[in-house]
Amino acid sequence: MTEKLEHLQMLLQNRLFMQLRKELEEENPVDLAELIEKMTKDERILTMRLLPKDLAVDVFSEMDPDLQETLLSEITTEEIDHLVKEMFVDDLVDLLEELPASLVAEILDRVHPEDRATLNRFLQYKVDTAGSIMTSEYTSLKKNLKVPEAIDYLRQNGQDSETLYSCFVVSDTRVLLGVVTLRTLLLAEDHLTVEDLMEEKVVGVQTEDDVEEVAEIFSRYDFMTLPVVDKENRLVGIITVDDIMDVILEEDTEDFEKMAGTVPSDKPYLKTSVWELAKNRMGWLTFLMLSGILTGAILTSFEDAFLVIPVLVTFIPMLTDTGGNSGSQSSTLIIRGLVLGEIEMKDIVKVFIKEFEVSLMTGAVLALLTYIRLRILYPDKPLIVLVVSLAILATVIMAKLMGALLPFFAKKIKADPAIMAAPMITTIVDASSLLIYFFLARWILKI
Predict the structure, then answer these.
(1) Phi-psi category of 174—alpha, beta or left, where left has phi over 0 and alpha has psi -120 to 50?
(2) From its phi and psi, is residue 202 left (phi > 0), alpha (psi between -120 and 50) or beta?
(3) Spatial CA neighbour of 326 closest among 399, 388, 415
(4) Do both 399 and 283 map to the same domain?
(5) How far is CA 33 from the centre of its chain?
(6) Do 64 and 120 fall into the same domain?
(7) Which of 149, 227, 224 shows the shortest CA–CA distance to 188?
(8) What does the alpha-carbon distance between residue 269 and residue 250 come to, in Å, rounded to a whole number?
(9) φ, ψ for residue 333 (rounded to 5)?
(10) DSSP code at position 418
(11) Is residue 312 part of a domain?
(12) How would you label 319-349 residue by residue, b for 16+ Cβ within 10 Å and e otherwise?
């Protein structure tokens, strides 16, 4: 990518514009957007103006929102009009959602009144709903069309559609009746009608459905396109697989950030200010630091135990680390299962039994290894070795069960299961493992 950028910049500097334009036309719009982002202001504007208009629209749609805003302030009114006119509605809505209000008003003033009404309607949908990511640029069919008529209609009206893979069949009042694929139409006999070929059982979503539910449907059925209907089952838009891939990436990123104990951010790491990064992390760090008071209180309450037998303190880090790691393993798997829909609330008993069995196996192996190692290191302290080994076993069982059940609890109270990941689990398990350890020490060692 660096070599390609340097080559393009060399062509610009030497004013070899015809050769540059030819090479630009051979590039993928996604790659071009990334290359242009790394250029200087003057290089960026000149490169965009050298692109064929249709390619310029595709490249602009693939750019980062911040760069889009910058470009809109640098190019002419005529260039803005062309970009706005040729962009797909869903891409234009995404752009408007990121722009300042003054610039949004300026762009809306330039679009056709009918398009403006569509954009305003789309902008009213709540963020993270099916309506907010759908596009109205699709081609629908009537059920009474014969195969040649349907194909001819698609040829005449499909050029502005985002996809023609699935054609949705609607009534005169736009009620969704069925779906027929373009492949089916092309291979069908001419005397058949769309109604003869369409599949009436259509899986779709409503405008207010959450995007996570939409993503689950795409994943379950391997769809390329999904219809979006209103409460009266009238077709109002479609969602394509490329749009939902962006949603899945955003949702996964958000879950990872929550699991790491930080507030999710809409901006890439390198474009987020130091202050915002610190602010996003400070809440969880403060909570986890204060929760450490509980661990300190437990150590204080059992101070007499490790004053009598100081060697007990030696094993605390091993115990808490093992517990935290065990809990994180279980919580990560369960959280992922809940997010993907592989695990549901009704599966809590199955999960409990499975994790209990796993914890017994892993705990027994770790306890045995601990016992063998400590018997070699402390041959004269068999009871202490027994205490530590039993504490390892009990801690692993406790940690894995907590790691498995706490995400269910989070989902039950309508919270994101991802918050029950490593930071939270580790804090809870640390305190619990110390309680187990010192109770066993008092019971077995009689202190």
Answers:
(1) left
(2) beta
(3) 399
(4) yes
(5) 22
(6) yes
(7) 149
(8) 13
(9) -65, -40
(10) G
(11) yes
(12) bbebbbbbbbbbbbbbbbbbbeeebeeeebe
Nearest to 34 by CA among 63, 75, 72, 10: 63
CA distance 113 to 307: 81
Is 259:422 a contact under the CB 8 Å cutoff? yes
Percent of the chain at pLDDT > 90 equals 24
Burial of 240-267, coded b for 16+ CB within 10 Å and e otherwise, reads beebbeebbeebeebbebbbebbeebee
User: Do 104 and 66 belong to one domain?
Assistant: yes
From the number of C-beta atoms within 10 Å of its C-beta (0-12, 13-18, 19+), residue 361 rates as exposed
Q: For residue 401, which of 423, 424, 429, 439 has the smallest C-alpha distance?
A: 429
3-class state of residue 170 by DSSP: strand
Copy the structure tokens of residue 360. Answer: 């017994």
Going by C-alpha positions, the residue among 136, 106, 130, 100 that lies closest to residue 118 is 136
Neighbour tally for 110: CB within 10 Å? 13
The Cα–Cα gap between 333 and 64 comes to 33
Residue 133 covered by a domain: no
**CA dist., res. 427 & res. 421, Å (int):** 10
Phi then psi dihedrals of residue 240, to 5 deg: -100, 160
Rounded Cα distance, 247 and 250, in Å: 5
Q: Domain for residue 59, yes or no?
A: yes
Q: CB of 406 within 8 A of CB of 423?
A: no
Residue 175 structural domain: 147-240
The string of pLDDT tens digits covering residues 322-368 is 988 898 888 888 888 887 778 888 999 999 999 999 999 999 999 99
User: Contact, 419 vs 410, CB < 8 A?
Assistant: yes
Question: Token pair for residue 210?
Answer: 């959450």
Q: What is the pTM of this model?
A: 0.61
Number of domains in the chain: 3
| pLDDT of residue 84 exceeding 80 | no
- Whether 304 and 339 map to the same domain: the answer is yes
Residue 383 · residue 293 · CB < 8 Å: no
Contacts of 184 (CB under 8 A, 6+ apart): 197
Do residues 10 and 85 share a domain? yes
SS3 295: helix
For residue range 189-239, list pLDDT tens digits in order: 999 999 999 999 999 999 899 888 888 888 888 888 899 998 889 998 899
| CATH classification of the domain holding 295 | 1.10.357.20
Radius of gyration of the chain, Cα coordinates, nearest whole angstrom: 30
The SS3 of residue 384 is helix
Say whether both 282 and 351 belong to one domain.
yes
Q: How far apart are CA 226 and CA 135, in angstroms?
A: 11
